[in-house]
Each structure stands twice: as C-alpha cells, then as structure tokens.
Amino acid sequence: MSSWQTRTIWSSASTKPSITRFMRFRQGGPPAYAILLNHDRLRQIRGGLFGNWEETKGVHWVSRCKVLYPCEPSKIFAVGRNFKSHIGDKKPPTRPEIFFKPISALQNPEDPIVIPPGAQNVHFEGELVLMIGKVTKGVSVEQAREAIFGITCGNDVSERDWQIGPDRDLQWWRAKGADTFAPLGPIIAQGLDYGNLLIRTRLNGKTVQEQSTADMFFDPPTIVSWISQYVTLMPGDVIYTGTPGTTQRMNPGDVVEVEIEGIGTLRNPVVGAE
What we know:
Elements: H1 3-10, E1 20-26, E2 32-36, E3 41-46, E4 54-61, E5 66-68, E6 76-80, H2 84-87, E7 97-101, E8 106-107, E9 113-115, E10 122-123, E11 126-132, H3 141-147, E12 148-155, E13 158-159, H4 160-163, E14 182-190, E15 198-203, E16 206-212, H5 220-228, E17 238-240, E18 255-260, E19 264-272
Parallel strand pairs: 6-17, 8-14, 9-19
Antiparallel strand pairs: 1-2, 1-5, 1-14, 2-3, 3-4, 6-7, 10-13, 11-12, 11-17, 12-14, 15-16, 15-18, 18-19
C-alpha cells in the first residue's frame, strides 16, 4: 500500500483517545487483528476482537501491510429504503426492510469491484455498517445498543437491472450478492457516535453522495433490535444500514470511495470481468 493510499484511508480519522480502531491485516503470514496507534502504525493483538484480547509487542506499518475487510461475519444483512433522499416520493417504510448479502460478496479495501458478465447497470451505495459484538436474540432497542461492537464503511454494490429492471430476479441473489459486491473497511471504530456521522461517496474524486446518519428513518439500535426478533445475530455479523441520495452506474476504470467521518475511507477500483 502506497503512502498516498494510507493517507486516503486515515484522512478523516479522529485521534480522540476514547475511540479505538481495529484493523484486520496480513503481512507475511495468516490474517491478524491490530489496533491503530497512529497514522501508519498498528499494534497487533491476540485473542480476536471479542472477549479478553490483549496487545502484543508486534508493531506493523499500515503501508507495508495488506489491509483486509475488518471482520469475519457469519452473516451479512442490509437495510433498504432507509433515507428519504434515496426513496424520493415513495411511501416511507414502517419497519426496517432487510435483505441478505452472501459472505462471498465481501471485498477488501483497495481490491477491485468486478462487474459480472452480462451486468449493464452496476451502482455504488455508500453506507455505514454495524458490526455485532455478542450473541444477540430478541433484544429491545436499548439492549441493542450494547450489542453493537463498532462501525465501519461499506459499499452495497447493486446491479439495478437485476434488482428492479427488465432482467430482475425473484430475489436479489445476484443483484446485491455477486462476488465483490460488499466492499468493507478499512477499520472498525469503537466509541464513535454513530447517530450523527457524515457519509460521503466519491466517484473518480467527485462527491456523488453526502448526508448524515442522523437522517436515517431507522437508527442502528432499532435495526439491530428488529433483526434480532427473527434471526440470531452472532459476533462479527455485519449490517449495512442503507444509502442516502441518488446512485449511478459505475464502469471499468472508475474508482469509488466511501468516507465516513471518524472512520476513514473505503476505496475500491472498478474492473470488468475477465
């Protein structure tokens, strides 16, 4: 990873000591977890993210590491129609509208979003993503707050023709779930106020989405509580919480960035299928 890419990832990251930032990375061995110490230094931890993890003596440079999507979920959920600016004149939902994305859709920061064969209308969707920190079943909204381990950036990549267009399927298995359609990262931030953060998406450097998480119809605890009534959430599971504003088609050669204040920037190039 170049120094320019490192600056891009951490350009909006706060240095407040009450906020802990975790990264999953690889450097000459199996994937490992670490805490971000400053702009480009990581302190490796042992014991995983949940429970009694502890710091080691291992220090790594972000610029020398391969940054991976920051957790290993058993399930990926996503919320549709969670911003007024995204649904326009449509009737607002009365409950969080949830769908699944497969684990195989996950993609690392800086790795490519691949336009699948036959896809003609693939869009970005910059989103705040929640990560669950403990087994969560049938919880109240207040209890759900304690289940959210941290937050990160995500891109709910979507093929509109397969989702709602002339070639739509019975379910969104390929429209939302094709390989590389769930970029995630670069870090998990713990201690941020996820209720009022600015989401900004850029396509080839131009801002194409910009809105606060305060404008969601359903806030993160409400989403977690609703899902938990029906499906047990496990540590590491992630929830994409919905995209603001309008989206547009991406093409091979484009670069899409999802930046959330206090977290950083998720950056992915776009390529065509080989």
